Predict the 3D structure of the following.
Amino acid sequence: MTLIAIPNETSTRDKRTAITPENADKLIRSGAEVLVEAGLGSGCGFVDEQYREAGARVTDKLQTLLAEADIVLRVHKPTVDEIAQLKRGAIHISYLDPFNERALVEALKDRQITAISMEMIPRTTRAQKMDALSSQASLAGYVMVMQAANRLNRILPMMMTPSGTIKPARVFIIGAGVAGLQAIATARRLGARVTAFDTRAVVAEQVESLGASFLKIDLGETSQTSDGYALQLTPEQLARQQQGQADEIARSDIVVTTAQVFGRKPPRLVTRDMIRRMLQGSVVVDMAAESGGNVEGSVAGEVVEVDDVIIVGSGNWSGQVSRDASNMYSNNLFNLVNEYWNAEQKTFELDLDDDILCGCVITHAGEIVNESIRKQYA
Amino acid sequence: MTLIAIPNETSTRDKRTAITPENADKLIRSGAEVLVEAGLGSGCGFVDEQYREAGARVTDKLQTLLAEADIVLRVHKPTVDEIAQLKRGAIHISYLDPFNERALVEALKDRQITAISMEMIPRTTRAQKMDALSSQASLAGYVMVMQAANRLNRILPMMMTPSGTIKPARVFIIGAGVAGLQAIATARRLGARVTAFDTRAVVAEQVESLGASFLKIDLGETSQTSDGYALQLTPEQLARQQQGQADEIARSDIVVTTAQVFGRKPPRLVTRDMIRRMLQGSVVVDMAAESGGNVEGSVAGEVVEVDDVIIVGSGNWSGQVSRDASNMYSNNLFNLVNEYWNAEQKTFELDLDDDILCGCVITHAGEIVNESIRKQYA
Amino acid sequence: MELVYLSFILILAIFLGFELIQKVPATLHTPLMSGANAISGITLVGALVGAGSEGTTLTVILGTAAVAFATINVVGGYLVTDRMLAMFKKRVSK
Amino acid sequence: MELVYLSFILILAIFLGFELIQKVPATLHTPLMSGANAISGITLVGALVGAGSEGTTLTVILGTAAVAFATINVVGGYLVTDRMLAMFKKRVSK
Amino acid sequence: MQTVILINLSYTLAAVLFILGLKFLSHPATARRGNILSALGMLLAVVVTLLDQSIIDYRWILLGIVIGTVIGTLAARLVAMTAMPEMVALLNGFGGISSLLVGWVALAQPDLSNFILLTIFLSILIGGVTFTGSLVAWGKLSERISGRPFLFHGQRQVNALILLANFMCGVMFVLYPAQPLWLYLAIVLSATLGVMTVMPIGGADMPVVISLLNSYSGLAACAAGFAISNNILIVAGSLVGASGMILTNIMCKAMNRSLGNVLFSGFGAPSGDDDKLEGEVKSLSAEDAYYILEAAQSVVIVPGYGMAVAQAQHGVKELQELLEENGCEVVYAIHPVAGRMPGHMNVLLAEADVPYDLLLEMDDINPRMETFDVAIVIGANDVVNSAARENMNSPIYGMPIINVDYARTVFVLKRSMASGFAGLDNPLFYKENTRMIFGDAKETVNKLVREFSA
Amino acid sequence: MQTVILINLSYTLAAVLFILGLKFLSHPATARRGNILSALGMLLAVVVTLLDQSIIDYRWILLGIVIGTVIGTLAARLVAMTAMPEMVALLNGFGGISSLLVGWVALAQPDLSNFILLTIFLSILIGGVTFTGSLVAWGKLSERISGRPFLFHGQRQVNALILLANFMCGVMFVLYPAQPLWLYLAIVLSATLGVMTVMPIGGADMPVVISLLNSYSGLAACAAGFAISNNILIVAGSLVGASGMILTNIMCKAMNRSLGNVLFSGFGAPSGDDDKLEGEVKSLSAEDAYYILEAAQSVVIVPGYGMAVAQAQHGVKELQELLEENGCEVVYAIHPVAGRMPGHMNVLLAEADVPYDLLLEMDDINPRMETFDVAIVIGANDVVNSAARENMNSPIYGMPIINVDYARTVFVLKRSMASGFAGLDNPLFYKENTRMIFGDAKETVNKLVREFSA
Ligand SMILES: NC(=O)c1ccc[n+]([C@@H]2O[C@H](COP(=O)([O-])OP(=O)(O)OC[C@H]3O[C@@H](n4cnc5c(N)ncnc54)[C@H](OP(=O)(O)O)[C@@H]3O)[C@@H](O)[C@H]2O)c1
Ligand SMILES: NC(=O)c1ccc[n+]([C@@H]2O[C@H](COP(=O)([O-])OP(=O)(O)OC[C@H]3O[C@@H](n4cnc5c(N)ncnc54)[C@H](OP(=O)(O)O)[C@@H]3O)[C@@H](O)[C@H]2O)c1
Ligand SMILES: NC(=O)c1ccc[n+]([C@@H]2O[C@H](COP(=O)([O-])OP(=O)(O)OC[C@H]3O[C@@H](n4cnc5c(N)ncnc54)[C@H](O)[C@@H]3O)[C@@H](O)[C@H]2O)c1
Ligand SMILES: NC(=O)c1ccc[n+]([C@@H]2O[C@H](COP(=O)([O-])OP(=O)(O)OC[C@H]3O[C@@H](n4cnc5c(N)ncnc54)[C@H](O)[C@@H]3O)[C@@H](O)[C@H]2O)c1
């Protein structure tokens, strides 16, 4: 019998939870034992009673929970402390940020934990149901536009009224990955005129399929990885991009940046100069504020005003809609566990040759088994 | 030559301005002299320089401004103090809340001010271009839904994703006047399932014309004034309404109340009991919080949490989108002045027989000339 | 010369037949077929001439049989079509 | 009897004419009219018979005039129609 | 006998070619091919006719053909592209006179039955009307004659008289074929009739008239066919007669007229009489509206609350796209108070994905309203109520409206004559150039959309 | 002479009634009136025929008519509503045998030209084929004969032989009309041919067969008309022959078959052979797709990224509404990864105002996929890639897909055979019940919408 344990999240800012009562129920039905820490999911409206009804045990002792667990599921990465409390050989599934968290990865390796990083789930069609980056980014796209709209001193839709015609607001989205596309869709829904830019040329069609227009900037050769991630631009290309989008930014009421480069710091795309040209009261949202920022002057976790322009860098975007975010993340975790569940032996079957696991298992049996992480720390 | 003066607003919470540079320009072109207080419109992105460019004089002496003005334009009602500084016989146009501000009305009367109340512009087709209640209510409808959506722990649209299907949020709008209709439209744009209720039966079709569904509650006989305002319900009818909508409220993620009865306190429609039945994290927006409230427990000007439900009563809704709100309000004022402008003599021609002026002029030449106000204070 | 006229008539009628039927809703396929079938019972007219003319016993027998068969086709065809269409009307008006 | 056939032909041709033209885009109104006009020059066939038959001087003169007029109608009609349609093609392919 | 059969079989083939030709002519993609097919049919018919044994003298024929070919070719080559319609009128007139002459010649046949005489008379009558009518039409179009309708008092009576005289003449003609008076009188009367029926019609309506005369010339050929017992004349003539009638009908619809008006003339009456028409509401079917839209170059769509009620916005967007594909310019004119809340129309049109650039404000559209062929009012009422401009007593007098009545044609899509929010009657509905298309706006729009099928 | 003319003028009128009858029969609103008009035409034709002077003995006629009327009336009254199609087949067969008999009787005429002999032979041949073919069809439909296709080795060869024999027999018949052998042989051979051509066809395809045989019986009447030089037989027969052909074609399209297949039999071949067809892509025009959709009772729409690219959502909504108006159930099946972002399809369909209740999740739709007449795949590819279910080597093997291939017919709307996001070939496109409708999805959908015009 496999014991799956879910501790509370330690971050107070993030109200998401790793497993909802619904998924606890599903896990138990497939034959696992589920142990949750008391108060799990209280941030997004679930109560202990619901978990109990699903058949889970509820404990308020974190220590025993960690010590007994065969599999630990959670949203955020564990502390080094917590890792030490885990059973050797246990499986730990959560966000890990493995490229930047060397100490953590070493700790997991040393404790012989099988650590699965949710960020590293490959972006293939088959893996999409476990892909938490996608599910959370998609919600983030929605939240960012809603926050920007709420802070703007204008409305987004067009209105032709007896008291004059209000022109539709202009929204510029930089980076049209999962989050960017959802941001486009949300802004379009609200009636804004939306323009978007991305370095990956294939995205133009996707942008237009949402009714927005794609800003054409000639960057020369750009490309993407086999997983669909963007490659880093050369400094010269970056300059060209900045120049090409300056006018668009100046006339936009809202700018949302979502540009990321897999495994690297996000590029700096919006400079102070550009912001200065924007109308007073405009809003810039920097999705990447917490990991370095696409926007000059954005502050991680905060909303600041620079040159009369509001820069939103609050981060934890999907956490704003914690209920839906938890549902999706929890589904992702369940789908992952379920995909490799051996229904007879009722265990998680680790097959390192499987192309999904091969991408997302970071440490196993005292080794860093993931190649790109191994290279990074070699 | 008529001097039109625009002082700054005294409320710090409201960033709107009564006249934008664009409308200052138009007033000057039609032959008026315009005097504005320094800093006018700074809350919504205008600077003194723009007014100067339009040809207005800018002063920082409020006292001389008030004393010299033939016409004063502003958003909010004046203080009794300020009234005393006005020239006798001057015209003062702003919101007045004349039904509840007896002292103010008396002061205006005594000072022989011709006071025009923007709330009292009749709701006729011809008067719509001056109708600030409509223009601001319409923005309010948008803002209320946006604020609610921002505070909700869910997203509004439906999403069928590999990480599960998110059902569209349910939004219930009580009162489908101008604000309510715009709220419906905004929530629908965001992809929510919207239901609405109003006591005026004619509204059902309007609600459906926006793609929302109308909740049918049999209240017996209800009717509306010739201006289209709702009449007050009998206590028995109110009870029936509360009962009829209780289930809808319980299953809604967002409830927005906009119910008003012209010249009376807004009805109390959502009770604590109903709120208790709502899901944790749901949001209720009380448009009328500042004038008495449709929702039990709402606090004027604040956002409170009651039984894990968030109740938004912040008020000053259109002020949230101060730039567009100012543009519209300023257009309303300009249209009003322009409608009665005598182009040859370059004066405001007061014709108390005109059906619009007859409705909105409250005091004139030392008399309360508006009938319903006179009755109210008789 | 008569044949010339007849073939002229044939050609025109064929073109007309092609043009007449353009787009038929699926519900009308069977009634239309049945109605056309009734029209094809026009061979009755030929049979009448055959059965009524002076001739051998054989031709009279054949002619009478032809009349009987063709009449079945005509009478049955029109009635059946009408029944179908009557039902169809009801269904539509529901 | 001949007349019977002819009227049969007339009726069929009229129905066919009605059925043939169903919905014509506005741009084709004039060319179609012109094309039909050329066809109505078929009276040339009648004129030929008239002009070529033995007859009085009058009928020959009349017949010849008829041939001339009808030929103008036919030749001019087809050419004009073709010119219009050629232009139309160009415009469409633009 | 063999040749007769050969000739007639060839005629059958020619008839098939004409039929296919007409069919192809009515589709853009095949039109040119259709014309060529029909020309082939004509060639075939002419060539085999020359084999006719009753033809014994080819000299005159040759003369006629040469003259005709030269003139026809030159005319077709030299005429300016813009002068095409009048050219067609002229050619059509020649067809008419030719039928008249054929009928005349047929008189020389021996043993004429009454029926044949009747058809001879008809070919003379119709041929004559076609001839002079076409000449007048040509004159009007080429501005050799004033394009203005030619009207005088008692016109109706005079025309009725001429018609009667023609009828009488016809009777006498059949009864006394030997008396040439009736022949000459028939010719004169039919020529007069042609002139009198076309003169009262204005230049703008000439295309319809020509189409009608073209149909007549087909009928004339058909009558001539009976007169000389010739199949191909009957078939080709009646094909042209019938299809020409349909085409005339279609063209009428595209010009917002009725065929009845045309057939009994007097249409396109001068506008002086029209003011009295106020109080009369003209309604139109969606199908007829299609013909007008199909011919329109520019359309302005004016939505109102009814579009919202009907939820017609998606259909409207589709209609817009179809019109655009058809080469028409389409814009939307949004009145600030249209609907029941500020921006009501914007919400709906944004939902239907109408580009913002196409949404024009009232003040931008009104100055250029005259330039629009059609204004489509979709469930709006108060915002296009011309009383606000015209009637000082109206409660909304002075309110700016969208002046749709200045467009060439106005379609008003609503369910009834009911008033709108303001509860006022709308004089727009009674204007000369207004057509009401009754019914739910969504259904009407969808019908229009479906009419636009290839 | 006078009666002959009267009779023939009445025939002309009867022909007009038949023409109008057929025209009206093809529109729901006028269908019943059409049937009555055509019945009137028949009555007229029959009554005036009785005036024919060559008819001298009415006794036999009366007998035949009484028998026929009684049987016909009873049959029409008593037959169950569900048994209509086989009833029509039977009646049609009687029409066929009647034409055969009329041809036979015509042999008794004096002075038969070769041409007349030929038409007599044709009326016997076609009448005979119609007769036995109809009987077999009736047997299959009423399950008196097994509905399964009756097939044997060398079938094609045998049929070709019969056809050849028939041809030879015809030649002999015309050359030696006095020799009754050829007559009897012709009757036997044509009867055999009728049986042999219909037997191989499965019961489900019988409606098409009946329609075809109906067209044949018109042709038989037409041939009989030539045999006895009768106008109305020729006109009515060829009208039915031609319009029956068109109707057959329309019905074929509604059943997703081609007329060629029917004419040369061998269609509806047993499914055993079909697996070998894999690798062949069948494409369909939007017009033909319309016929199938028009006849469908339930449709599932599966949108994918291509719908977004084409921005076809508004048209799709309209198509949905039209199908619903037509009495069809329509739902949408949304695959979780359709499009390029989570919820991509929801955004678009919400924009087009598709009710949420119609959007079904993959897991809800798959179990009932068999119940759908048509699945319309609009610009989707990976999400309906049956390789995920069937091909263990596929990179997406095991991914749940929407099993559109289980629906009766699948339409795939895309521009080419190109692959989707995952870059994989899609075996769905090669399945027996899949039809590719190539072209931009929006254009295709709009074409379908326009085909749905009244
Ligand atoms: N914009 C605002 O903020 C606001 C707010 C409140 C009031 N108003 C007032 O509302 C009016 C707006 O003018 P409007 O022209 O848009 O609307 P309107 O004057 O109210 O006219 C709407 C018309 O639409 C027709 N209609 C309704 N349902 C229909 C359907 N399903 N299909 C076809 N037609 C339908 C009705 O005629 P049938 O019944 O004959 O079909 C009606 O006459 C103004 O008077 C304005 O002052 C505006
Ligand atoms: N949902 C997500 O969050 C997400 C995110 C990223 C990637 N993906 C992946 O995207 C794929 C989605 O599957 P899908 O079936 O929706 O799309 P798909 O497999 O990419 O197929 C789309 C098809 O649409 C056709 N198409 C494109 N434009 C068209 C037009 N204008 N008209 C008609 N057809 C057009 C293309 O074929 P032609 O070129 O022949 O027309 C193409 O084969 C999955 O592989 C999924 O993993 C999904
Ligand atoms: N196969 C699947 O089912 C699936 C699921 C989800 C995502 N994906 C794919 O994964 C890929 C990554 O998506 P993501 O949202 O995680 O990307 P991401 O978060 O890594 O980056 C966000 C976006 O920023 C863009 N970007 C990078 N540098 C930029 C610059 N200088 N200027 C502008 N934009 C810049 C990227 O191109 C990307 O579109 C996409 O191709 C997406 O389609 C596939
Ligand atoms: N003629 C014009 O051009 C014009 C312009 C603007 C508004 N109007 C009309 O003015 C009228 C008032 O609009 P408003 O938005 O200012 O109204 P309001 O602010 O006075 O009231 C808001 C809504 O609350 C509703 N209400 C009252 N009691 C209620 C209860 N117990 N339960 C539920 N709903 C209740 C009212 O019916 C109204 O729809 C409307 O009829 C509107 O159409 C007309």
